[in-house]
Amino acid sequence: MSIGLAIAVVLIALAFTYINGFHDTANSIATVVATKVLTPGQAVMLAAITNLIGALWGTAVAKTIAAGIIDTHVIEAGPQLLICALLAATAWNLLTWWLGLPSSSSHALVGALVGAAIATSGNNFASVIWAQGGLHWWDGKGVVPKVVIPMVVSPLMGFVIGFLLMGALYALLSWFSSRTGFLRRLGRTPFVNAFFGKAQIVSASAMGLAHGMNDAQKSMGIIALALAGATTAGQFDGLPSWLGFLRIHGSSTGGFDVPAWVAVVCALTMAAGTAGGGWRIIKTLGHKMVKLHPINGFAAEGSSAAVILTASAFGIPVSTTHNVSASIMGVGAAKRWNAIRWSVVERMVWAWILTLPVTALLAYGFVRLAQMF
């Protein structure tokens, strides 16, 4: 990989991170804005700080993206893979953002990586699996255990946890009301709104932390992969000493060590993106799908943060979008089933289903087009 190509990958990855900011970070702050606990400006500032902390809190997801989805030897054979994958994922993110659909940037990136890897390797499907010797689903490596299974399981967990947590809160307030004669209108009284308004700041912080630990690290993984490839190829050998930070060497485990500067740059870029245009997604999640109060926002953020933080600890790149959306659905269903606007949910689900195949096909086409020149 040439120096110019490596730098191009870094810049495009940062552009993807910026778009991820106004596309996905908006999901993490949608509920706290929709419930009017924080203004959009305050929520963006909270998201920026917590995203930065989360991005610096381990690199398990970054290592999965860098060396756990596709065979890293494919990068050496066709370095244009990363650029084509990023362009495909970015195109899909921009389209769904324009339509106001909270689709998954995570799955867009993974789908694009898979499609580009297949095209680069000459339609060798085994190249998308990080496992020497072929498909090894049982050892937790590759697209199926790292992406496909969590894609289905994590939103279901978000829905169930959100439903149970909201039901438990309603039951607790009902019990308290029956013994004090207070809080007649559950979830709407000034006392309850004030209490859960403060609690929601905590849950929103947890959501921002979770988002930083998972989403910011995906771009970190791409950048680490590009710089490590250039370092291994000796493209950075002639760099002056003050640019030595660009060199990334393989770790003893065969993966890549992600430098702190990569984490900081990705987190700051994502925060800037959040400030740049997240309102379209916030409207869909926080206003169109179900009407939210602070108690609902607390339950949705708390349940989705629990799922994402758990996945991040195991290096699993799950979708913030899917988990937040599913948690809001669960909270709305606990309120009453017809509180959810199912027509909006249907549009979102179609975006979820189409993300992986569409981005894979786009990236495949981009690679084939690049090979013609």
Description:
It is built from 13 helices and no strands. It has one domain. The protein has helices at residues 3-34, 40-56, 60-67, 73-77, 80-98, 105-120, 143-180, 190-232, 260-277, 279-288, 294-313, 320-335, 342-371. Mean pLDDT is 75; it is low at 130-139. It is globular. It is mainly alpha-helical.
In short:
This protein has helices at 3-34, 40-56, 60-67, 73-77, 80-98, 105-120, 143-180, 190-232, 260-277, 279-288, 294-313, 320-335, 342-371.
The secondary structure category is mainly alpha
Total count of domains:
1
Q: What is the number of helices?
A: 13
Q: Please outline the major beta sheet.
A: none
Helix content: over 70%
Features of the shown structure:
373 residues; globular; 13 helices; mainly alpha
Fold blueprint:
Layout: H1 3-34, H2 40-56, H3 60-67, H4 73-77, H5 80-98, H6 105-120, H7 143-180, H8 190-232, H9 260-277, H10 279-288, H11 294-313, H12 320-335, H13 342-371
Helix pairs in contact: 1-2, 1-5, 1-8, 1-9, 1-10, 1-11, 1-12, 2-8, 2-9, 3-8, 5-6, 5-13, 6-13, 7-11, 7-12, 8-9, 8-11, 11-12
